[in-house]
Every structure is written in structure tokens, then in C-alpha cells.
Amino acid sequence: MPPLRGTGANPEAEHPEYAGQYRLEARLGAGGMGVVHLARSASGLQLAVKVVHQQYASDPEFRARFRQEVGAARRVSGAFTAPVVDADPDAEQPWMATLYVPGPTLADQVKRNGPMAPAELRRLTAGLAEALRDIHRAGVIHRDLKPSNVLLSDAGPKVIDFGISRPYDSDLRTETGKLIGSPPYMAPEQFQRPREVGPAADVFALGAVLVHAATGRGPFDSDSPYIVAYQVVHDEADLTGVPSDLAPLIGQCLTKDPAGRPTPDGIMTTLRPPSYDAAAFIPSQRRPATATPLPGTGADASADADTHVGAGAAARGRKAVRAGGKQRWLAATAALLVMGAGGVWAVGTGAGSGGAGESDGTGGAKEAAEDFAPWRTVLRTTGKGTPVCSPADGAGQGATGRTAGLFCAADGIGVTRLDPADGRVLWSRRAAEDSPSVGVVSVSGPLVHTAVPGGKLRAYDPAKGEQVWDADLSPYLGTPFDAGDALLLVAEDGTTEALDSATGVSLWRHSLSGHRRPDYALYDAGTGLAYAFEHSAYGSTTLVTAVRATSGRTAWQRRLNGMLTPVGTSGSALVMTSMNGDAQTVGLVRYEPGTRNVVRMALPFRMNEPEVVLGGDTAYLLAHGGTLVAVDTQPAQGGETVRWQLETAAGRTSAPVLGAGNRLYFSTADGRLLAVDTARGKLLGQTGPRLRNGRLTYSSALPAPVAAGRTVFGTAPDGSVFAVDGQNPARW
Questions:
Q1: Cα separations (Å) of 506 from 16, 21, 339, 489, 495?
Q2: Exposed e or buried b for every residue in 674-691, given b needs 16+ CB within 10 A?
Q3: Element (H, E) at 27
Q4: Residue 261 confidence (pLDDT)
Q5: Lowest-pLDDT choice from 441-450, 627-636, 708-717
Q6: Which of left, alpha, beta for 672 (phi over 0: left; psi -120 to 50: alpha)?
Q7: Residue 643 falls within a domain, yes or no?
Q8: Phi-psi bin for 181: left (phi > 0), alpha (psi -120 to 50), beta?
Q9: Cα gap 549→530, rounded to integer Å
Q10: How many domains does the chain have?
Q11: Is residue 510 part of a domain?
């Protein structure tokens, strides 16, 4: 067995003897980012443990990327990958353990034994197509499929190394001047439009992998990566030596236009002829479990395969949006010139398909779904195009009854009322052409309020859409804060004014004692209290004030240690997040104003910009990057605070909302809507992405979905508003 520690400056010298509880027994392979070791679990299972090089452990961007890798690996199906057993992306040296799969990589197999026989090639084609189907259904794009990332086990091919994979809605960008990837297996769009890469890029890579398996070389061959890149973008693939019955299919996979490539399902259908020989093309992982060997990561992994990852249960769902179009060679040349200066290959953001998880097991879901009619309405928006919606009764957070109306607003459309039953537009009041973006503020009082930042606050009759009153917002900061029967505005000098939401008349106006310029973060309809907060100059303390929204009287005020933000109430207690000096959320604080008791709970790791929703005594924190954590805000003495943790692998997300039946919902930047079981911490389902012209655009905030009874309303960048059945997310 080779020594675990080397000498000198070699990165291997930095690696510890253990990764978590796992003793590292032998080295399996190494790459630019880490070393893969053989290890064993307590029960004796052989594991492949990837340990990140010390030099990358202190890089926050790399840690975020590695966390995303772990999330993607857990998300895809273990039937076609090496399943993740354990991981700690927050360790001093991050690591991830997957089950060990005995068997060579495709690269090693071809190098040692030459091209595959036609029957073997067909089985490989079907097996990899099936793997990509499940990877894409989980909303993940691999983006680096190549022979060294395909393991040939007795149970069929396994796809490994999700180090640069990405869910479609992620905005984790590579550094300028870097393109990570393997040029002979990269799709044209990865050179031309790296931020618009979709699942079709994996199909292109599959075609290149199959050419290598059939011939021992790639469809684009050169010693220079720059020439290969040019060939990928402009030249036809060289299919010489590819079996004639597979050449048309592989050639279609290598089409320059992503829209012209087959889907993984299409490939599998093509490989299903009505003959006895068809059985030979079915991947062997469908054999009985007794014939399935121990999964994991291949001992013969090549040196460039620096990560071996697996997955949790695959989410099922719809096909992904595929990016299309072409770009001039000039753009590819410019990218290559920058790339040459940086000396590192990279890729951009990929596009993923939405999928659906499993149902909640309550039974009767199919029958219930038949009583529900989903709908989708596209609003004629401009700009970013993602509408913001509010229910008429204001009971979007877990309401049990049907909403009386749905009011939506977005750039260019003003405010529109939709029929929540079928999505019909009942009335619309278009904004002025020269006005900034318009968003729904609230539906209360009982009027519909929309605001133009720096302009006007307008109130409409919800039944007819007639304007009732308006107010000038120019003296105030931001948009009004909805506090039930009052709309709270903060002026430049810190003065708070409350407007009656029904009439627009000023209810009160004064400064809050002790505050210079407060922010309002929370309103509790049960008590009528609005919570203002303000951090001290250096963030060491926070002044929190509970204000009666309609009268302006202070119910209580307290200065607490730490940089705190109110996020919810649980009974009489106020729950707040606590941040460190780097604006990372590190804990929760529960404050009882009656007893002045303060309870502080540390989070298991620091979270970047989490959105938080409180349900009873449980806080659900959804972090940038898709990590969702359920935390008990009133744990027993010495008890665990974290109830469960789920890696959704989503990039940018909306705030989560709670719905009936132990459901939590949130949206992603590509227009997907996801549902999570709050009792078990499991992904129940997700819709497909809905992008405007197939492009992922950036907006400063993502609208949260609306949950009203069994109906969940979502919005997307394509300008659409849609309704799905919250009782059956598996069928979304």
C-alpha cells in the first residue's frame, strides 16, 4: 500500500490519515482538485473518498463549488452513479465518500484492449443514455462527460465526477478567463455561450465518448486544444470506424445546434428494435439485485478523474429547455485567447431539466389529481419578466381554503387579476411606459396595492380594477412594508409613517425611540405587531422594537447582542437569525419578551444569505446554493437543534413558503417550483424550467410562490404564472 503522506511540496503531503471517521487506506487516483483514496465504512463497505487539496480548502469560491458538487452528486440516481455515503464540505479539508465501484474507466479499457465490439458499444450507448436521462431528470447537467468519467462495472456503466456539474439555475460563475472542461468532449455552446449550456451539451459529449469507445480516438483530434476547440465549433465530426448501424445516431448527437440533438429518451427508443437481440442492448444494471456487485468507485480510475461522486434519489419530471442558436467563430477565438492567458480550462452554467420526486405515500394521489386542473398563463412582460403574485385573502402562507383572487404584477404590465381556478385574466391595469418596475405590495384593507419605486403607491379595487387612491413615494426609502391594515414607510431622516391600507390616510408619523433609520422585517397578524430592527455601527448589537402597526405605540424594545434580523414568531417568542462579521448566518436567537429570556442556537455550518420561514417551533433556512436546513428553535435541554438537512442543488432561490400537508415550496432562477416534505426533509417533486427564450437572466430578487389550500401558484422568467396541485408534487 502506498504511503498516505508524501514529502516535500507535493499536494499529497497535505492529506490527512483520516477523512471524518474514515481511515484512508490506499490512493486510487488524483486530479487537479484533490486525491481519491480507498477506505472502509464501519460495516466494512469499501468506499472511495475524495479529499480536497489543502491549497483549495481556504478558497471560499471553491468551497461553494465543492458544496454544489456534493449536492449534485446526492441528487442524481445511484443506479447509474457511485452513490454518496457521507461528506463534509465544511471540514478543514473538505471530503466526500462514495461507494467503491470495482472496474476500469472507459479510457483505461480502450487503452488496454482497443475499441469496443459493436454489441458492447450498443450496450454502452443505452447505459449512458439511461444515466443521462436520470441525471437530467434530477435537474443536473454533468458538463464533463468523457471516457475517464465512465466506470465499466459488472452492473453496467457508471457516470462519475460531478465536480463541474451544475443545476440550471445556479449563478455560481467561473472566474473570468477560465474554462474548465475537456475540449474534445465539450459541446460548441460550451465555448461560445458557456452561461447558456443545457442538457444537450451532455448529449454532444456522449456522442464524442461513443466515437472514442468505437475507434480509440475522438471525433475531433489534435494535439492542440485550440485547434480541437475550432473543430468542435466548425468542423464535422470524424465518424470513420464507427459501426454503420450506430453512425447516424452518434452523428445526430454531435450536431452543432443543441436543438437538433436527440434526448436521452430518444436515444434509448432508437436502440429498442423489435427483435430478440434487443435484450442485449438493455443495460445490465436492470438484472436482479442478487447479481449486482458492490458499487463504488473504480480502483483503476485515471489520474485526471479527480472526483468520484454518487447521488440520492433521482427527481422525476419534464424535459429541459434546450439552448439553441449559433455564434460567430470570433467569440470562440476570443475565449480561447483569454483561456490561453489563464492557462486553465473551464465551463459556464448549464441548463437542467425539472423532475419530480416521490409522492408522500398517503394514497389516493392519482384520484385527487384528477379533480385538479393545472393551468399556465403567460403575461406580456418586459425586462426580467418574472411576475410577482399575491392572493386576495393574503393567506398565501399555508392557507387551507381557496383564494378569492390572484393579483400579479411585473415590468410592463402594471397589475393584473387572474382567476385562480383557471388562470383567466379578469382585468389588467398597464403601467405607464416610462415607469420603473411595478410589484404587488399587498392585498389588504381590502385593496390591491402596487408600488413604483421612487414614484407612486396605487390602490385598486380588487373586483373591478378601478384606482381608489394613490400616494407619493418619493420622500420614502424603498417600498411600503405591508403590516395588515397599515402600510409602513420610512423616510430619509428615519421617521416612520403608517398609511391606512384602505383609505391611504396617514394613521401616524413619528420616529421610533432609539432608532436612527429602522428597517421593518416582520409583521405578526395575530398580535398586530410589526418588528423594526437596526444594527449598531459595528454590528455588535441590534436594537429590536415591536410596534403596534395601526397606532405606532411601542409594545416593547430590547437591545440584544449580535447582528440579528427578525424572521418569525413562535407563540409569544420572536425568532431571529444571527450573522457574523462576514454577513454569514451562523445561528438563530429566540427571544421571549415577557421573561426577557434569550436562547441562542448555533447552526451546523455558516450559511450564505439564507431565506427563512418559521413554522411552529421549526425554522427552515434555505441558503444560497440550495442547502435547506430545518432547525428546532425550542430544543430540549441538550437535544439536537437540526432536525434534518437537504441538499437541493438549486442555485439562486426565492424565499420558501409553507403550505398545507407538511409542504414547503420555493422557486428557482430558471422558473422551477420545488416541493419539500417538511416532516421528512425529502424532495417531493419539481416542475420543469420556464425560461424566456431559453436564457437565464439575472434579477436582484426572486418572487416566492403562493400556497393557497391545495393550489400552489408559481411564476417564471418567461413571464408565466402557473398553478399546480400541492397534494401531488410527484406529477408536476
A1: 65, 63, 60, 11, 13
A2: bbbbbeebbbbbbbbbbb
A3: strand 22-30
A4: 94
A5: 441-450
A6: beta
A7: no
A8: left
A9: 6
A10: 2
A11: no
In the chain, what percentage of residues exceed pLDDT 90?
41
Q: What nine digits make up the cell of 666?
A: 420555493
- Do 31 and 88 fall into the same domain? yes
Cα-based distances in Å from 195 to 78, 173, 334, 654, 674: 28, 8, 16, 21, 23
| End position of a domain, from candidates 100, 123, 147 | 100
Provide the CATH number for the domain around residue 25: 3.30.200.20
Q: What is the pLDDT of residues 491-550, one digit of tens each?
A: 989 999 999 999 999 999 999 999 999 999 999 999 999 999 999 988 899 999 999 999
Measured CA to CA in angstroms, residue 227 lies from 185, 211, 332, 469 at distances of 13, 18, 11, 65
Q: Evaluate if residue 1 carries a pLDDT over 50.
A: no
**Could you tell me if residue 725 is inside a domain?**
no
Beta partners for residue 27, in sequence order: 37
Q: Which of 327-336, 415-424, 543-552 has the highest mean pLDDT?
A: 543-552
Q: Is residue 78 part of a domain?
A: yes
How many Å apart are CA 5 and CA 431, to the nearest integer? 67
Crossing angle of helices 106-113 and 200-215, in 10° steps, is: 20
Between 228 and 592, the more confident residue is: 592
Contact (Cβ atoms closer than 8 angstroms) between residue 352 and residue 132: no
**What is the DSSP secondary structure assignment for residue 310, as one 8-state letter?**
-
Categorise residue 50: left if φ over 0, alpha if ψ from -120 to 50, beta otherwise: beta
Q: Which residues are annotated as a binding site for ATP?
A: 50
- The residue segments making up the domain with residue 128 are 101-167+174-286+324-342
Strands 618-622, 611-615: pairing is antiparallel
Question: What backbone torsions phi and psi does residue 630 show, to the nearest 5 degrees?
Answer: -100, 120
What CATH number has the domain bearing residue 261? 1.10.510.10
Q: Which residue has the cell 441562542?
A: 600
Q: Which of 100, 135, 158 marks a domain boundary? A: 100
Tell me: do 74 and 122 sit in the same domain.
no
Contact 70, 89 (CB under 8 A): yes
For the cut 50, the answer to whether the pLDDT of residue 605 exceeds it is: yes
- Residue 694 φ/ψ region, left for φ over 0, alpha for ψ in the -120 to 50 degree band, beta for the rest: left
Residues flagged as binding site: 50
Coil, helix or strand at residue 158:
strand
Q: Report the Cα 531 to chain-centroid distance in Å.
A: 30
Residues 23 and 13 in one domain: yes
Q: Mean pLDDT of all residues in the chain?
A: 78
> SS in 3 state form for 665-722?
EEEECCCCEEEEECCCCEEEEECCCCCECCECCCCCCCCCCEEECCEEEEECCCCEEE
Q: Tell me the whole-structure pTM to 2 decimals.
A: 0.56
